Amino acid sequence: MTQRRQRSRLLLAFVIFSSIILNFAEDCRSNNALLKEKLRQRNRVSHEPPSEGLLLSLKIQDLRLSSPSTLLIDGFLTKRFQDASLDYSRDRPCDEYAVIRIANASTFDTPKISLMNGEWLSGGDKTQINAVVYQNGTVFETERIAISAPCSPNSTTPFGGLVCRLIWHNLAFSQNEMFVTWAEDVSENPAALEKALQSVADYKVSHLEFKHNSIQKFDRVFDELTFEVVLSKSKTKELLLFYVPQIMFVAIA
Which residues does the UniProt record annotate as the domain Neurotransmitter-gated ion-channel ligand-binding (predicted)? Predict the structure, then answer.
């Protein structure tokens, strides 16, 4: 009798626990469905720039030097911002975040930053964009980029080299309205940039640099973000090409 009672109690506890789980599963709602509702509601009201600003990160997939004046940069550009109007945390979402694919950045009214130099390749700014939206309205919007960056000679290296730059400006909002900067993990996480540290043609990638500057237009101050690739030539190769022939010429003379 005692064993039967224990089994009955265990069975009852299991049934109660299962019913609680099932009720919660039935009560929770799809994150994507909740997000779509928030987007429809937000379109009816005026939208302001994110109060916590915009963070950018860049993950390089490939670097190719097509000419001494052009570097092809292939990778992923991620914009991170928080939009309080997309907060669906109190609506019993089933998951931690929603993942959606969008045709362009206008879906989220993503703060626009303008590429001031370089050229988009293969449709560039019209490629597919993926977005991860957390319950509190934090958005990670990632797009694949393929851009040709202009390069110029680098006079700071003794054996010659190149500096290739991409420059973005936030012209939509001044710093007083919305601050734009590089995310901390861009400079602190070498693993995210390991594929970029490779040889490019006859050059070696010396280092990558992410810079933030302030620019003034009229009476307003805006953000400028720069991604810089410093290329240097091999010292050994330069010695063989230039110094060894001169030594041989002197020896023969």
Answer: 71-231
